[in-house]
Amino acid sequence: MTLPIDPSQIDSDDIGEQQTTLEMGHEEAIEHVREVFTDAGFGVPVEFSPSEMLNEKVDAGRDPYYVLGACNPEVADRALDATDNTLGALMPCNVVVWEEEPGVQRVYHVSIMRIARLAGMAPDDDVMADIVADTGEMVDEAFESL
């Protein structure tokens, strides 16, 4: 399979990558990230711990790792309309919290809106540009508050 884009040519801005570290316990960080993203206009309808599942099912020995599926219903509705419903395959927008070491948590996010455009799942037009800008502002606000 040939990729339609050259991954080596993509930088973190192209995919809306944001990350930071928090100096606190893992559970405290999850609560903090959930609160901050909620305050920035996101709901968190989906949450799960891949590390718990993998440690239980395949004895992976993974350190704490948690996914918060954040979503702003208004923006999600606009994105589904703009992509003839295909963007739903990437929803919700995930924010990941993993423990780098005890007391230090990494918070990581990439923009599904930007990735959808790069992958050809979303149009490269003004409507999608507005959606990307709106979600980008909300994520920026959240990361500034972390």
From TrEMBL:
Transmembrane segments: none annotated. InterPro entries: DUF302 (IPR005180), TT1751-like_sf (IPR035923), UCP021774 (IPR016796). Gene3D superfamilies: TT1751-like domain. Residues 51-110 form the DUF302 domain. It holds the Pfam family DUF302. PANTHER family: SLR5037 PROTEIN. This is DUF302 domain-containing protein. It comes from Halorubrum distributum JCM 10247.
